[in-house]
Write a structure and sequence with these properties.
The complex is a heterodimer of chains A (327) and B (165). With 327 residues, chain A is an alpha+beta fold. Chain A has 16 helices and eight strands. In chain A, helix 2 runs antiparallel to helix 3, helix 9 packs across helix 11 and helix 10 crosses helix 15. Chain A is elongated and about 80 Å long. Chain B has 165 residues and is mainly alpha-helical. The model of chain B has no long low-confidence stretch (mean pLDDT 79). Classes of the chains: A alpha+beta (327), B mainly alpha (165). Chains A and B meet through helix 1, strand 1, helix 2, helix 3 and helix 7 of A and helix 7, strand 3 and strand 4 of B. Strand 2 of chain A pairs antiparallel with strand 4 of chain B, so a sheet runs across the interface.
Chain lengths: 327, 165
């Protein structure tokens, strides 16, 4: 793991970091022995030193005819008992431990390296430290990642899951003109012709760049309307009125007016605007988008019962709707 | 297996709801076993699945198979018709359920479960692990392990599965 991560998250007590061996022996023939070398250094209390050395010297030992000779050299450099180290490598004890890690990984669904778990949340592949940090902070704050298509009662789902035969999943940036165009032009038609008829469910995942951007405030406002059972109405209203609040001095004041117009309990709504929970739910959508490597928002994903199709702009959305999802 | 490292046990786990003839098939194997040919019938039942699976008269097919294996036909027929091993098959199923088996095939290697039809490598891996003295699989690594770094009570645990190459 990179030193910045150790410094910012481990040394500050935010994170306990665990490294587990998952050599992809088919792709990397020497990786198995390297993992065993790390375990054998660990037996002598120098796991992390060997771990760091192995990552720093990959080019060297992965090309070597006999990588074990390199590992023994590193052990010596680290001041380990070289005889005990060599015995450990030969004993098979280290290979059992590596195998135990691989089997645990397989049971947890690991199928690539690196593969991270932030508590129980799986992350396939490496993430830049800023993104990993975002996930860590989110998990530490008690955030939970929703299913891409939530099951059961969830105000982010419009329509009837019992009767629907197709799904549209929408990652929405409340500050994006494209999202607003979609909400004004395509969504009302979709709502009338497919969602209200029970043919399709429409799932909204909010997306926001940073907590204090107007888009994030709007996404939080939508969550707060959702708590009072009016997510869909707020979704349409906020995007429809985007021009009014996007550059406003105090967007929340406008959102309170919208809440009143939707017959919400305004006091409860305003308390919610400041709550951590609503913001965590917005972040959850943002993290789902990130973990699914969406190229940008808005982003639309469709399932027509046969396969998945994706679109990034409202125009692409319309094209897919007109072609592949026609009844 | 032939190297003597592993003892293989077969337990019946017919999935009645999806495979209505599976119970009788399992009983047929037991009835053959009574005459010393359990594994021969076991193999024939798997190889000849097309002959009896989905066949409402599967029992007749099992009896034909008994003939093919040169079993005492009368003894086999009365064993199968009389449901002599029905209770034993049911007991195997119940034991499987109690051990968490939910699908077939499921394998228990010592007490580790491997669900589904798995490639040979998966068996080899688990067996090698146990033979090498590997203990129970640890899904989580405690703070006392040398592979753990940082405060034991940190609110978040980041686990990385990786290789060095």
């Amino acid at each position: 793991m990179i030193p910045d991560f150790i410094e910012q998250y481990v040394d500050t007590g935010k994170v306990r970091y665990v490294y587990r061996e998952f050599p992809l022996t088919n792709l990397h023939p020497a990786a198995q022995q390297a993992s065993e070398a790390a375990v054998c250094a660990g037996e002598q209390g120098s796991y992390w030193e060997m771990n760091e050395t192995l990552f720093a010297t990959t080019d060297e030992w992965s090309q070597a005819a006999d990588p074990t000779e390199s590992f023994k050299g590193y052990a010596e450099d680290l001041g380990l008992d070289t005889k005990a180290f060599a015995e450990c490598l030969d004993s098979g004890q280290a290979s059992a431990q590596v195998l135990g890690d691989q089997m645990a990984g397989q049971e947890l669904g690991v199928n690539a390296t690196p593969y991270f778990f932030v508590n129980d949340l799986p992350i396939r592949g490496g993430l830049p430290i800023e993104m990993l940090g975002q996930v860590i902070d989110f998990v530490a704050a008690g955030g939970e990642i929703p299913e891409v298509i939530p099951v059961g009662d969830d105000y982010h789902v419009f329509g009837d899951g019992q009767t629907a035969t197709s799904v549209a999943v929408v990652f929405v940036d409340y500050s994006s003109p494209d999202s607003a165009k979609h909400a004004r032009e395509e969504f009302p038609v979709l709502e009338k012709e497919r969602i209200s008829t029970g043919e399709m469910i429409y799932v909204v995942h909010p997306w926001a760049e940073s907590a204090d951007s107007p888009g994030a405030m709007a996404a939080v406002a939508a969550e707060c309307a959702g708590e009072q059972g009016k997510y869909q109405q707020a979704y349409s209203l906020l995007l429809d009125e985007q021009d009014a609040w996007i550059d406003a001095q105090d967007p929340n004041a406008l959102f309170s007016e919208y809440a009143a117009s939707l017959d919400l309990d305004v006091q409860e709504f305003e308390t919610c605007l400041d709550s951590q929970d609503a913001w965590l739910r917005v972040q959850a959508g943002t993290i789902v988008a990130m973990l699914n490597s969406l190229p940008g928002v808005p982003f639309y994903v469709f399932n027509n019962g046969q396969g998945w199709l994706s679109a990034q702009t409202a125009d692409e959305f319309k094209t897919i709707l007109d072609s592949n999802l026609s009844p | 297996m032939n190297t003597g490292q592993v003892r293989y046990l077969f337990r019946n786990f017919p999935l009645f709801s999806i495979h209505p003839q599976a119970q009788k098939a399992a009983e047929a194997a037991e009835c053959a076993g009574e005459q010393g040919k359990f594994w021969e019938m076991h193999e024939l039942l798997f190889e000849g699945q097309d002959r009896w699976s989905g066949n409402t008269d599967a029992v007749t097919v099992f009896k034909e198979m008994a003939g093919e294996l040169d079993l005492d036909q009368d003894q086999f027929d009365s064993c199968l018709d009389g449901g002599k091993y029905a209770d034993k098959v049911a007991a195997d199923s119940e034991e499987g359920l109690a051990q968490g088996v939910a699908s077939t095939p499921s394998f228990l290697i010592n007490d580790m479960q491997l669900a589904g039809a798995q490639p040979f490598e998966a068996f080899q891996q688990q067996i090698d692990y146990l033979l090498a003295g590997g203990g129970p699989i640890e899904l989580e690594i405690g703070a006392d392990s040398y592979r753990s770094m940082g405060e034991p009570d940190a609110p978040v645990v980041v686990t990385e599965f990786s290789d060095f190459q």
